[in-house]
Amino acid sequence: MNTIDTPLFGLSQRLPPSNVQAEQALLGALLANNKAYERVSEFLIADHFVDPVHGRIYQAIVRRVEAGQLADPVTLKAEFEHAGILEEVGGTAYLTQLLSAMVGIINAGDYGKAVYDTWLRRQLIDIGETVVNNAFGADAELAGPEQIEAAEQSLFELAADGGATGGFITFEKALTEAILGAERAFRRSGSVSGLSTGLRDLDSKMGGLHPSDLLILAGRPGMGKTALATKIAFGAAKALQADARATDPAAVPKQTIAVFSLEMSAEQLATRLLSEEARISGDRIRRGDIGQKDFDKFVQVSREIASLPIQIDDTPAITMSALRTRCRRLKRTKGLALVIVDYLQLMRPSAGTRPENRVLEISMITQGLKALAKELALPVIALSQLSRQVENREDKRPQLSDLRESGSIEQDADAVMFVYRDEYYLEQKMPKEVAFEGSSDKFNAAMDDWQQRMAKSHNKADLIIAKQRHGPTGTISLLFEGEFTRFGDLDLVHSDYAN
Questions:
Q1: Are 481 and 278 in contact (CB under 8 A)?
Q2: Which residues of the chain have pLDDT under 50?
Q3: What is the crossing angle of helices 292-305 and 266-278, to 10°?
């Protein structure tokens, strides 16, 4: 790395890293044989060159090669002359000189990586300088946590896509991605192109969970929102593990599931998972009311599920900026396939923002979650409470208008699902003999009717898909075992108990 003496301080000032020789050698190799472009086309762009002249020459080579035309000193000279910039790129003499700088066409890939590496280092220096300047107060409005967020955002973008901040995508590339998604659905059993939820009918209805989607799972307290979200997290983790072990039984999944549990602690969530899998009542586990046989099963199940790729963050009242930062870090270090937030009304907007009211605050959170889903290209499931107006209606089945602060939630979500259990409300409507004024016949008739309705709704739940941007709406019937707060496919109840 070059240095310049600075008499004022008696120290040395370092110059940003560069490798002009590698740039010249690469351009010489490309001009000598255009096929060398194939070795660098996937990662190198004109902006990566430290010398702007080299960047313009590379851009011209790329333009001609991708158009199926020859790119050599003669054709580039003509092109630059026509554009009136020949002298700006060093003239004919410099184009010819680049050919002599070429060491070997076979090394073009190495030259390209050297150019790209020095560019990455320069970007890191720029990010570091911005962090230092902001820390010294260059931007007085940025608080410390916000500076960390901004720094991690810049580093994430640099690590994820070489610093690209978005731009146009050709229709051809978009079509290719769509065809690949259709192919995945065609090849997988059950026609699931996205990440499996572990629930057959839900996968069939939605095709699994898809990247960039924000899904809202809502319901009144006691409906089982957390239990269903836990089931989906569990099912998705099992799917990731199964995919990893399809060829190697010892393989570790390359992605993980992130669960942000704002209401329950990580220990409580783990206990619920164990209760579901071991089929031992969570209440009995908490009270220690289990025998040796149950405890042995408890330990066995814990060993079986310990390796599932699930990460739990139980920070209460987490901010949108902190959640975003942790997701970026997790994606960078462990890979990330799905984010679940339980639940969004307990979140706070990003630090430094001051929403005027609660509706605007929720709007900022849902917009942030949707932006996170798009940025990290993964599905985000956010649980949501419903307003109490549901309880004031005879028909308790939820509607989109029942969402708390519903305008933004409904607008930003790609799918809105409601958990509803008729059994929950029927339990509260058990006939009381005193209400029939001594008429035993009327009471017995009412009791018979109530018992029939209870039997019909026992261990059943409805998942109402009220909105789905990319597919049909409708209702899915699910099994719900209240004792274990466990959801499953409705017609698999017997085989589930047998396992």
A1: no
A2: 1-12, 163-166, 493-499
A3: 110
Taking the alpha carbons of 189, 194, 198, 203 in that order, is the dihedral positive or negative? negative
Cβ count within 10 A of residue 221: 9
Residues shown for the chain: 499
Rounded Cα distance, 419 and 220, in Å: 8
Q: What phi, psi does 80 have (nearest 5°)?
A: -70, -35
Task: Residue 367: name the closest of 353, 113, 100 by CA.
Answer: 353
- Quick one: pLDDT at residue 160? 57
Within 8 A by CB and 6+ apart from 474, the residues are: 205, 464, 465
Q: What is the DSSP letter of 405?
A: T
Q: In the chain, what is the greatest distance between 2 CA atoms, to the nearest angstrom?
A: 111
Helix residue ranges, H only, 166-281: 171-187, 200-206, 225-244, 266-278
3-state secondary structure of 352: coil
Q: What angle do CA 239, 242, 245 make, to 5 degrees?
A: 150
What are the strands, taking DSSP E only, across 306-437? 310-313, 336-342, 380-385, 415-420
User: Phi/psi zone of residue 463: left (φ > 0), alpha (ψ -120 to 50 degrees), beta?
Assistant: beta
pLDDT value, residue 498: 38
Sign of the Cα pseudo-torsion (261, 265, 269, 272, in order) = negative
Residue 106 burial by CB count (10 A; 0-12/13-18/19+): exposed, middle or buried?
Answer: exposed
User: Half-sphere exposure of residue 192, counting CA atoms within 13 Å on the CB side?
Assistant: 18
Name the residue with tokens 């086309």: 41
Tell me if the pTM is above 0.70. Answer: no
